[in-house]
Amino acid sequence: MSSLDQIRAQLAAAGHPELPVGHPVADGKHHRYGPRKKYWYQLREVVSKGAVIGYSGTYGYFSGDDPGTERFQWAGAPLSDEVLAETRRRQEVAEREESERAARQAQLAANRARSQWDRAGDVGASAYLERKQITPEGVRFDADGTMFVPMYRYEAEGRLVGLQKITPNGEKRYNKGMEKKGASRLLGSIGAEDKMVLVAEGYATGRSIRMATREAFAVSVCFDAAGIQSAVQGLRAAFPAVHILVCADDDWKIEQRLREWLVEEFGFRGELTYGASPIKVEAKNTWYMLAAHKRVDDNGVQFVEARPRNVALLAMIRAY
After folding, report:
1. Within 10 A of 167 (CB to CB), how many other CB atoms are there?
2. With contact defined as beta carbons under 8 Å apart, do 190 and 241 qualify?
3. Gyration radius from the chain CA atoms
4. In terms of Cα–Cα distance, which of 259, 86, 102 is closest to 181?
5. What share of the chain is helix, strand, coil (3-state, %, to 5)?
6. According to the 3-state scheme, what is the secondary structure of 90-106?
7. How far is CA 39 from CA 10, 33, 35, 285, in A?
8. Angle at the Cα of 183 (from 177 to 184), degrees rounded to 5?
9. CA distances (Å), origin 216, targets 78, 203, 204, 236
10. What is the pLDDT along the chain (320 residues), one digit of tens a residue?
11. In the chain, N or C: fewer CB atoms in 10 Å?
């Protein structure tokens, strides 16, 4: 069987931080934890003849909207067809209930966003805008200087799904439970005669482009890198003839971002040589073998693959 200790060991081997007190919980729900709530897991009981014989589920680390999903490894004897069928049935029920719950949460978040947007003022001051040296467009302001950027799904006439709330110190928050995936904010409008529309990640980047081009082009603002693809697909479906230009920010600095990630997650300030043997790093009350490799995806785009591994914990998992 797969025990909760094995589940904890698999998460640790994958580089996850220590779970909160009382976790893991096998309730079929997504639980997010760790720095910036980037880590998550979802766990369910595997039941046979009314008794729990183990656990199954998924886990990952969010990068934008990409959850980085991995499946927990099952340790023990193979499951019978009867147990597999019952497990699938329970999983389908849990997924349906989770989908319904998420839809309710998203609707409540959209309602709160609409109320907050309606109460906010069209004119206001924002220390964030001042630091970025940009003027406001398509935003509103709360009394405390927080700037509201509306987030839409642009099917049909557009549907408000939430707000990005940028505080004076630059912290970015969202309505809890909102439908963030695929949301964007269009600055300007796209007319029948327009030849080009721009896509950018982040309000400040999008507004800076609008100002630099004297608002000659509409700009679709995405809220993280993972939202760019959805924005481009939506624009292409709505405007088949328009040229779409993606205005990339410094996300191309993948080596710099890798170093920042290593410092943030593992306190490691050394150098990783691409393609070299893994190096041992002590962090989070254990140790990891870190290695990095340069890869190219199916579209010819370069990226860095870097995953921590804990061989001792993996061996312990297999030993059960």
Report:
1. 16
2. no
3. 23
4. 102
5. 35, 30, 40
6. HHHHHHHHHHHHHHHHH
7. 13, 5, 8, 18
8. 140
9. 62, 17, 17, 19
10. 468 888 999 998 888 988 999 999 998 888 999 887 889 999 988 887 777 788 888 999 887 667 888 988 876 667 778 877 877 787 788 788 888 988 999 999 999 999 999 999 999 989 999 999 999 999 999 999 999 999 998 765 679 999 999 999 888 999 999 998 889 999 999 988 899 999 999 999 999 999 999 999 999 999 987 788 888 988 898 889 999 999 976 655 677 778 777 887 777 877 777 888 888 888 767 788 888 888 877 767 677 788 777 655 444 434 43
11. C
- Token digits of residue 1: 């069987």
Q: Which residues are CB-neighbours of 150 under 8 A, at least 6 positions away?
A: 113, 117, 138, 139, 140, 160, 163, 185
- At 255, give phi and psi (nearest 5°): -70, -40
Residue with tokens 């593992």: 266
Confirm if 31 and 23 have CB atoms less than 8 A apart: yes
Q: What's the rounded Cα separation, in Å, for the pair 190 and 213?
A: 15
> How many CB atoms neighbour CB 132 within 10 A?
17
